[in-house]
UniProtKB/TrEMBL annotation:
The protein's name: Phospholipid-transporting ATPase
Main EC class the enzyme belongs to: translocase
Compartment(s) of residence: Endomembrane system; Endoplasmic reticulum membrane; Membrane
UniProt keyword annotations, A-Z: ATP-binding, Endoplasmic reticulum, Magnesium, Membrane, Metal-binding, Nucleotide-binding, Translocase, Transmembrane, Transmembrane helix
Lineage per the UniProt record: Eukaryota, Metazoa, Chordata, Craniata, Vertebrata
Amino acid composition bias (Polar residues), ranges on this chain: 1135-1165
Native organism: Esox lucius
Keyword Nuclease annotated: no
CDD domains membership: P-type_ATPase_APLT_Dnf-like
One Pfam short name: PhoLip_ATPase_C
Bias (Basic residues): 1167-1176
Gene Ontology molecular function terms on file: ATP binding; ATP hydrolysis activity; ATPase-coupled intramembrane lipid transporter activity; magnesium ion binding
């Protein structure tokens, strides 16, 4: 982010005038620097003197507050937050409605107990979380730092919360920066400060920050003034700056030290505070996790709406029934008393009142505890996922992390997986394998897995290029144009590698570092390929010695050290896809620019009039070989001083100092310079495939998951990786799409669709189809008039490879597939360029690899390697989806079954809203007696073991078909609930009909029958019994009888005029009570039990067959599973692409449908031709 700031070292009187305006916006910010020489400013009088007391008073302090509540307003604010949930408002409204005498169904004080308990539990959880945030804020705000004080003329210890905008802050090595600082001075003579930004973006590699350009504060430090040499010099410097014509100084992110970062490799750094507290970058990035709603939750919301409709229908029946009953009475019965106004309500008005009374009575038809129980179940599931030993990576000491607590069940319902390539399917540990210099290829066949062995011919050519290197003669020969020397110099200097000592590097973990033990030197790179190139150049004698913002020191093969002056660095950006460094030779004085980048961006910038065309053609041919072998390719070029415009430097400085359109101006200057280049050569870097990637990919394909690989590499590289990872088989039909014309793209899509439909026609012995498309063609295919054709073609393909795509294209593809095909998508990546794709998918997974932690920080789940995707989806995803689906269905069934008992009773009490069950037992039934077993069911149940799920990936397809939870299963559960409620009501009713038992005795027997029925129904649904299941089931029964016995023995006048005193004891003394419990439970559960037996026997689902398989002898079971896996082969990970493919049959044939452009620009389609996959 570019920040314009008034020149910092103006006299204070000028700064005060700007400060009085109170402009604190980030885009135009005027700040007074609280410099040590403040007392030397001109004295101000009158009104201006008052404003000098706090010149930066308009800016916020540095204290941070991440808590949501305060101690005094916790209750009202928490209730306000909870009332944003419609369910809470619904039940609170019913509790308040129960206080109206005309519609009262229960005792009002008792009716508010359930919702008060739920609100209190949620408030306790929120309060505990907020207390943790408060303690964290307090610890951060009371952290010590050093701030300059005029009273002691030095730096003093202060808390972070006391830092203000304008203060001078000193930070030592390995200390955390307390606020956003503008770097004014460092202990490094070159004005460099290295920071680690892991707290912001998760990246552990070092970032370089520079002192603000134009502020010459890098002078000698003495004890009297830690920043300037003396006060008089400082005042003269201020006056000099004030009188210059340059009033505004622009600076970029390179001069900003963000809060929360750690200073590394720098003894001391002094900065000027520009942003504090919640205005700092780290605090503004803390927006909280993105909320994602699971597919199951969306289905549940629809079914809750159906429950509301059923509830209102039942209440309407109750209201009409009450009206009809009143109309049928010959006279007013004695138990109907007048209201407070002294006369009876009319029958229609009584029916209206009864409608609201029935809503209160039947309110638990909407499961109040369902959402709370689901949250508890998800926390339990996530606990088991994060503690799975199989998902732990011992090498990196990392395990799976669940950053989104509300979508674990979506892992079991994924249709499309979008994956990055580098660092996701591969290890992102680069090893130098091949290079091409001036059209000659050097294969480096002797290279090991991680070390580079120099090619003998290339090493001899490099050593011969500089002569004998003795005396000045060798140096003069070095000045001559030798493209071999320039090639390795480009490898050495055209990067952002930081040179440090090995002892310093060992203080913290650096994933992309190469340590030279003999020289105690450490190369810390921002990307693994830069480290690999610098290491390869060192093997050939070109050693990077030191790097500063203005110079780079290189040791040549025969020991000569050259210190190049760095004139400018054109950093890599996703639009140019290259970087350049402009140097001045220390001896000849000539200006040379070295450029590296993607082959297609560098090749188009070559000066073919000077370069030999056959060299470029040979290099391009070598690049194609490298891509087919799965190697990462880079091109290197140079440009000498005669080709660089003299005024370019001035234009570059103007662009750097510009405030408006700065990025555009910098881009323009870079593009203007990077022209007419001389080709030096190209490199091929190997990135090994991760362990077990082919096995994981094959398992996901068998599970019905379609995989898309979105990469910025060439098509040849992507195809090679796809074959190595078994994303494409040798027998697959591969469709290539590459065109520059929209009309041609449309024609290609039509022809590809025709070919795809032919091969996927039922009864046609077709082939599996794979699609390879480049980024430019993809842009046209995603346009509104072609996107439907493209998606139809993609649905016919088992795998899709999108090559040369940008991060924006990745996210666009995910959004289009998710929104138009209405499928569940998952995106997995490891780098910052995958963040948009991860956030666009329904489920985002980040891999903690070699490119920092930005993908992990933006993801819903994080894993350490791609192979963990197999168990995470096939096992934990299936379990979470199955458990939550069955538990949600069970909760609907349980509540409907129980509440219908009250509804059926209304037919025998004149629809008066009377309950035959005691109000306390009614509340405790759902709150305590039947709450724990379904939660344990959702956390612990396993329909199929992990070994079977991994051995039979096809079982994952049950999540696609929504076998656990669908509208069909919901309505089946509703019908079963209505049936069981009828049985549980009428069998006790018919049994006790004509007896003299009271209402609570009748209700107590019905309550007991319902408990046994509901718990045994759950017992039928449990697939794997554990000790936890037995304890919760038996514990619920024991708790029920304990509470009811104690309650009926102690409640003498709890619910006047009728009391449940000794009713349970009296019932349990009669044999008919036990007979009713047994007969009712058997009759109620017999249809469901019969259905389960017949369906599992006559028409077993794949899951049922898998459970039958688990009952077999282990040897027989393993043999049967191996027959399912026989055609897949074992895992093949951790080897290079070419080695994996070499071990396959050398003459296997791949059918390919190649659809491209001919020279006339018209589409052509060759017949399905066969070619051999040649691996070098």
């Amino acid at each position: 982010m570019f920040v314009p700031v008034r020149r910092l070292l103006h006299t204070l009187s000028v700064t005060y005038l700007h400060n009085q305006k109170g402009q604190s916006e980030r885009n135009d910010r005027y700040v007074c620097l609280m410099i040590p020489f403040m007392s030397h400013t001109p004295s101000l009088s009158g009104e201006n003197r008052l404003h000098t007391k706090q010149p930066n008073r308009y800016f916020p302090g540095n204290a941070v507050k991440t808590t949501k509540y305060s101690l005094w307003f916790f209750i009202p604010m928490n209730l306000y937050e909870q009332f944003h949930r419609f369910a809470n408002l619904y039940f609170v409204g019913l509790a308040v409605l129960n206080f109206v005498p005309a519609v009262e169904a229960f005792q009002p004080e008792v009716a508010i107990v359930p919702i008060c308990v739920m609100l209190a539990l949620t408030a306790l959880k929120d309060g505990w979380e907020d207390c943790r945030r408060f303690r964290s804020d307090r610890r951060i705000n009371h952290t010590s730092c050093r701030v300059y004080s005029r009273k002691v003329s030095g730096f003093v210890e202060r808390h972070w919360k006391d830092v203000r905008v304008g203060d001078l802050v000193e930070v030592a090595s390995n200390e955390i920066i307390p606020a956003d600082l503008l770097l004014l001075h460092t202990s490094d003579l070159n004005g460099v400060c290295h920071i680690e930004t892991a707290s912001l973006d998760g990246e552990t590699n070092l970032k370089r920050r520079l002192v603000v350009p134009g502020l010459n504060t890098q002078v000698r430090i003495n004890k009297g003034n830690p920043l300037f040499e003396n006060k008089s010099n400082c005042l003269s410097f201020l006056q000099l700056v004030k009188n210059t014509n340059v009033d505004v100084l622009g600076f970029g992110i390179d001069s900003l030290l963000p809060r929360g970062c750690t200073v590394r490799n720098t003894d001391l750094a002094t900065g000027f505070v520009v942003y504090t507290g919640h205005e700092t970058k780290s605090m503004m990035n803390k927006n909280g996790p993105q909320y994602k709603r699971s597919k199951l939750e969306c289905k549940m919301n629809i079914d809750v709406l159906f429950c509301v409709i059923l509830l209102f229908s039942m209440c309407l029946i109750g209201a009409l029934g009450h009206y009809v009953w009143l109309e049928s009475l010959p006279s007013v019965p004695l138990f109907l008393t007048p209201g407070s106004h002294g006369h009876m309500d009319s029958n229609p008005l009584s029916g209206l009142y009864m409608f609201f009374t029935m809503i209160i009575l039947l309110q638990i038809f909407i499961p109040i505890s369902l959402y709370v129980s689901i949250e508890m179940v998800k926390m339990g599931q996530i606990f088991f996922i994060t503690n799975d030993v199989d998902l732990y990576e011992e090498k990196t000491d990392s395990r799976v992390q669940c950053r989104a607590l509300n979508i674990p069940e979506d892992l079991g319902n994924i249709h499309y997986v979008f994956s990055d390539k580098t660092g996701t399917l591969t290890e992102n540990k680069m090893v130098f394998r091949r290079c091409s210099v001036t059209g000659t290829e050097y294969s480096h066949n002797e290279n090991g897995k991680s070390e580079v062995v120099p090619d003998r011919k290339l090493l001899q050519r490099v050593l011969a290029g500089g002569g004998d290197w003795d005396g000045c003669g060798g140096i003069r020969r070095c000045e001559a144009t030798d493209l071999y020397l320039d090639f390795f110099l480009a490898l050495t200097v055209c990067n952002t590698v930081v040179v440090s000592t090995a002892t310093t590097c060992s203080l913290w973990h650096q994933s992309t570092s190469e340590i030279d033990i003999s020289a105690q030197r450490c190369y810390v790179a921002e990307s693994p390929d830069e480290a690999a190139l610098v290491h390869a150049a060192k093997v050939y004698g070109f050693m990077l010695i030191a790097r500063t913002p203005n110079s780079v020191k290189v040791r040549l093969p025969h020991g000569v050290e050259l210190n190049y002056q760095v004139l400018d660095t054109l950093n890599f950006d996703p639009h140019r896809k290259r970087m350049s460094v402009v140097l001045r030779h220390p001896i000849s004085g000539e200006i040379v620019m070295y450029t590296k980048g993607a082959d297609y961006t560098v090749m188009e910038l070559l000066d073919f009039e000077r370069s030999q065309k056959n060299v470029a053609a040979s290099t391009q041919r070598h690049l194609n070989w490298y891509a087919k072998e799965g190697l990462h390719t880079l091109c290197f070029a140079k440009k000498v001083s005669s080709d660089i415009q003299e005024n370019w430097s001035l234009l570059r400085q103007e662009a750097l100092a510009a405030i408006d359109n700065r990025e555009e101006l910098l881009m323009e200057t870079a593009v203007n310079l990077e022209k007419q280049l001389t080709l030096l050569g190209a490199t091929g870097i190997e990135d090994r495939l991760q362990e077990c990637v082919p096995d994981t990919v094959m398992a996901l394909r068998e599970a019905g998951v379609r995989l898309w690989v979105l990469t910025g590499d060439k098509a040849e590289t992507a195809i090679n990786i796809a074959h190595a990872s078994r994303l494409l088989d040798q027998e697959d039909l591969v469709i290539h799409m590459n065109t520059d014309d929209k009309a041609v793209c449309k024609s290609i899509l039509d022809r590809s669709l025709e070919e795809g439909r032919r091969h996927t026609r039922p009864g046609y012995p077709g082939l599996s189809i794979g699609l390879v498309i480049d980024g430019h063609t993809l842009d046209m295919a995603l346009q509104s008039d072609l996107v439907d054709r493209f998606l139809e073609l993609a649905r016919l393909c088992r795998s899709v490879l999108c090559c040369r795509v940008t991060p924006l294209q990745k996210s666009t593809v995910v959004k289009v597939v998710r929104e138009r095909l209405k499928v569940m998508t998952l995106a997995v990546g490891d780098g910052a360029n995958d963040v948009n794709m991860i956030q666009a998918a329904d489920v985002g997974i980040g891999i903690s690899g070699q490119e920092g932690m930005q993908a992990v920080m933006a993801s819903d789940f994080s894993i350490s390697c791609f192979k963990h995707m197999k168990k995470l989806l096939l096992v934990h995803g299936h379990w979470c989806n199955s458990r939550l689906s069955n538990m949600a269905i069970y909760f609907f069934y349980k509540n409907v079954t129980y509440v219908n008992l009250l509804f059926w009773y209304q037919f025998f009490c004149g629809f008066s809203g009377t309950s035959m069950i005691d109000i306390w037992l009614l509340i405790f039934f759902n709150l305590f007696f039947t709450s724990t077993p379904p939660i344990m069911f959702g956390v612990m149940d396993r329909d199929v073991s992990a070994e079977t799920l991994l051995g039979l990936p096809e079982l994952y397809r049950t999540g696609h078909e929504s076998e656990g939870y669908s509208h069909f299963t919901f309505w089946i559960a509703m019908l079963d609930a209505f049936y069981q409620s009828l049985v549980c009501f009428f069998i006790p009713y018919l049994t006790y009909q004509g007896t003299d038992i009271d209402i609570y005795t009748f209700g107590s027997s019905m309550n007991t029958v319902s408990l046994f029925n509901i718990l045994l129904h759950l017992a039928i649904e449990i697939k794997s019994w554990t000790l936890v299941h037995w304890v919760t089931m038996l514990g619920s029964v024991a708790l029920y009888f304990t509470v009811t016995l104690v309650y009926s023995a102690t409640c003498i006048s709890c619910n006047p005029p009728s009391d449940p005193y000794w009713t349970t004891q009296q019932q349990m003394s009669e044999p008919i009570f036990y007979l009713v419990c047994v007969i009712t439970t058997v009759v109620a559960l017999l249809p469901r039990f019969t259905y389960r037996v017949l369906s599992n026997t006559l028409a077993p689902t794949p899951l049922i067959r898998a459970r039958h398989l688990e009952r077999l002898d282990p040897a027989i079971r393993e043999q049967w599973i191996k027959e399912w896996r026989g055609f897949r082969g074992g895992p093949q990970g951790g080897r290079s692409y070419q080695k994996q493919t070499q071990e396959q049959e050398p003459s296997r044939i791949t059918p390919t449908l190649s659809i491209t452009n001919n020279h006339l620009g018209t589409p052509t389609r060759s017949a399905v031709r066969h070619h051999h996959n040649v691996e070098l």
